[in-house]
Amino acid sequence: MSNPVAPEPLIRLRDLCKTFGAQQALDGVSLDIYPGEGVALLGAAGAGKSTLVKILSGTLAPDAGELWVDGQRQRFVSPLSARRVGIVAVHQNPDDAIAPGLSVAENLLLDELGQPDADFLLNRKSLLQRAETIAAGLGLELPLQHPVERLGLADRQLLVLARAFVLQPKLLILDEPTAALSEADAERLLGLIDSQRARGVAILYISQRLSDLQRVTNRAIVLQEGRLTSDLNTRHLPTAAYTLFGDVAEQPAVTPDKALPVPFLERFTRAGFIRNRAEGKAVQEQVAGLGTGVAPVEALDPAKTKRT
Description:
A hairpin with a 2-residue loop joins strand 4 and strand 5 (72-74). The protein has 308 residues and is of the alpha/beta class. It has ten helices and twelve strands. It holds the Pfam family ABC_tran. This is Sugar ABC transporter ATP-binding protein.
């Protein structure tokens, strides 16, 4: 019986490096991402997440290293060159990707309107029909003829995501897409992401919501000081989250007085523990008087940092 052929990675990064002056933002990052895979990108502020996303999406060029897409080596010179091979980034603030003064339909087709051969400006009926087809295919009910300014935050986020889907991405990079949404609105957006993964679109997902990470991703990679330090299964995050920046045996988590009914990943720290919304107050009280910023583990109460 023949062995199954291992799938080829969609994205292959090899030894990516990037410096800004004396700061090493990325230091030899190597990573494979496969079609249909959901990968969580985790790390403290300054760990290199934004730099990695900007290189993948064509905003920055690496100083060294290689980037391969579908087996072809790439060197992006702009976000357009990244989109041409199927890498699309959707950033946290939807207003950054919306053109005021245009309709919802025109915003949905904004990338197509920018093409030299676009005839939508001369044929508004064709534009609306195209937008209606896209929205229906995604199961979206948007007021396509209304000015985009009338949309609420959730619908603007859905619009920007739908616009990314129009580009038929192979890798979709999402930065905190549900951060400002209600639970119901977040579920609508996550449903769209699920549908894209089912079609084979790979997702690189940045979020502080543990529930999002477990829903959207199957792997979690951790950057620390520009280096990829961990690659783990997302289902291990509830127990492994405390060890993302250190050994849990040496640096146990600071826990709140009351157990949380629903885990919510609020932020990572170099000290190796998670703060969630309920824990945040408890942590702040324990580090009060130690100055601003993230307190080192050794500065906390020694009784709470001993091995259990």
